[in-house]
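Async update (no meeting this week)

Hi team, since we skipped the sync, here's where things stand on the single-chain job. The sequence we agreed to prioritize is pasted below, unchanged from the tracker. I ran it this morning and attached the output directly underneath so nobody has to dig for it. Comments welcome in thread, and please keep replies under the output.
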Amino acid sequence: MQRMNDQPARWTEATVYPDMWVDPDNDPREGASPEGELATLQDFLAGYRMTLRMKCEGLDAEQLARRSVPPSTMSLLGLVRHLAEVERDWRNWIDDADPLPKLYGERDADFHGAIAEQAAVDAAFADLEREQTAMDAALAEHPDLSERLAKDGIAVRELWVHRVEEYARHCGHADLLRECVDGRVGQ
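Output:
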């Protein structure tokens, strides 16, 4: 007798390479390689930001808020909220002004507050876009990657690399979370 389970079947929209999210001709992340270090960092960050959004597309509020790997509190919506919080916090690394307040409150509130309501989803994506735009604008004032910022003296280059690393890490989580939600796989 075959046991029933609630594990979704694995699938992809790609027809060329089965390990891809979409076919190469339809992948909005594909394009010419940038010239220069700063442009390369910006390109990688933009690609990971787009990947996160792609992993969330087509899901409803319940699916985005689903905690797919118990006992973890991580969900796709939680990741969106977390990255909005992180983008905001990075601005605190740029100057010595009073720190910006947290968006969602105490530790892990970004994940705990990821509830299955469309208003929460809309707010999270608006928060993420706003915080990304603000951080991008703040860093645009520091084009010298060797410049040291604020009292901690973090190099602009290190901040860019850390941003890429943070998104890359969480896009890996998003891969697994999305597969648990509806079985869709791909880079």
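Quick observations from my side:
The two ends are 35 Å apart (CA to CA).
The beta strands are 148-149, 154-155.
Reply here if anything looks off.
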